[in-house]
Amino acid sequence: MDRRLGLALVAAGVAAVVGVRAWLPEPEPALPPQASTDLRLPPPPPLSSPTVPVQSRAGVLSGLVVYLSAGHGYVIHRLGEGWQRPEVHGVLEDTWTAHLVSHDLVPALERAGAQVLTVRERDPNPQAVVLDFDAAELQRPITTVQPAPRAPGLRPVALLRPDGQARWRLRAPGAGRWQLYASWVAASDRDPRATYTVRHPGGVQRTTVDQRRHGGEWWPLAAVELGAEDEVEVVLAGSGGGTLAAGAVRIGGGTVEVTDPRDGSRIERRAWELAAVHLLPGLGAPGSVWDRPGKGFAGDATARARWAAWSHPAGEEAVYLSIHTDAGGGAGTAAVVRWPCVGGDCPVEVGRSRALADAVREGLVGAVRETVQPRWPDRGTVRDQLAELSDEWNDEIPAVLLEVGFHDRPEEARLLVDSGFRAAVSDGIVAGLARWRLGEGAALPPGPAREVVWEGDRVGWAASEPSGHHGPATGWRVRARLDGRWTVGRWLMRTSWQVPEGAQAVEITGLSRAGLGRARVVERPAELVADAER
């Protein structure tokens, strides 16, 4: 995160500009790519990606809420519009961080049991379908509730009796991987253990939520793989502990219209691309969180911190993590914490940020050194007065900003776009969080299956050896892809499986009490395909 580049546009005093790129130096020629992904406009993950519950029943991070920021994004400002950082060596920080968060880090945290809330949109699909309560089948309704005008992102809800139920049926705009969300209006008499059940062709997933909290936010329910005509059913039911708020459900990221402060026109951009400050109104946040006249780009940085403090309810175990890359000379990974604090001594929770920073940085560096680059530099934990970490805006939960690597260093730019590097970064952050929370002996989710052999109608594999960022597997989940669709997963205690006839691929996922590992997908060997076609 090269702040000198980001602030250069303000210092230049440009009166009229077309976009941020006009204020910044031309990027150096891109290096020959070593990965197949264009991170400026990355596609959704392939259908082989594992579908896992958003809130795991078990996992080393179960009970922890991670407020996760993907850093910068596309901004529309009184001085212009564009990305907040320039593209260098084929890496655009604003989209690289969004790609890492949505495709790698969020799934890794969720597989370990964490609840993850992102301030930037995690679904890159430009289409979305939103159904309000009036599109649902309602049982035992009481009345409808209209949100206060000062909360523009809140949607009307139907209030149901404790034994009520709401059922939505919706279809994604097309085939692919889609994120599903729910929204409600919170109140003190709501059910603290309301359950959303999602039924789709890949299985059934359940998420329990506390409807006394997090009103207006788009709460992640599941990431689902769908065909073009597949239907998803979402059912809201209660535990009997309070009334139910049947609000809205959404599938897909969609687009957002932003008012251009220069002329009042409306600019539409894919939600996944936009900076946090443009998305917060749609999350039900009050204007005090996102409407900071005259603050410019600094307003986006502080909005992320204000979002975490606004969203975080008292008593919730939580951390704030922000993902960035760096520039301006240097190498490797650093963690940044706020110091000194406003007014001198830091609050206790802010003081815990140093230990959190050390843990996640050491976990990240250790995983990268073990699997990708043995000499990856560790720049340590540094102190800085970054607005995004200021206790003036967020004094409730520990907060850390991670500078993963230097996008203006050619050899590191190559690694940033490598899928193995991104997997190591994500696994290392999970390991660091687990150790910060539970100590050095914390159990870790298992690694991917290895030495996979597909012979005839059987597939066999070996478990990954435990490492500094992976633990042992105690069981396995297997699925097969038939006619382009993944079957419902089966759970095994052995390391072999009889593959269903006609399977084009198999997916193998390790599991343990610490969570789910990363899936290993193996395509059917070409010689077996040829035999089957004879």
What do these coordinates show?
This protein has 534 residues and is of the alpha+beta class. The chain folds into three domains: 3-31 and 65-125 and 254-438, Zn-dependent exopeptidases (Aminopeptidase, 3-Layer(aba) Sandwich), CATH 3.40.630; 129-251, Jelly Rolls (Sandwich), CATH 2.60.120; 450-533, Sandwich (Immunoglobulin-like). 21% of the residues lie in helices and 32% in strands. The protein contains ten helices and 31 strands. A six-stranded mixed sheet has the order 6-1-19-22-20-21, with helices on both faces. Helix 2 crosses helix 9 and helix 7 (353-371) packs across helix 9 (419-438).
List keywords for this structure.
Jelly Rolls; 534 residues; single chain; 10 helices; alpha+beta; Immunoglobulin-like; Aminopeptidase; 3 domains; 6-stranded antiparallel sheet
Task: Report a brief summary of the structure.
By secondary structure, the protein is α+β, with helices and mostly antiparallel strands. It contains 10 helices and 31 strands. The strands form 8 sheets. It has a 6-stranded mixed sheet with strand order 6-1-19-22-20-21, with helices on both faces. Strands 8, 9, 11, 12, 14 and 15 form a 6-stranded antiparallel sheet that branches. Strands 25, 26, 27, 29, 30 and 31 form a 6-stranded antiparallel sheet that branches.
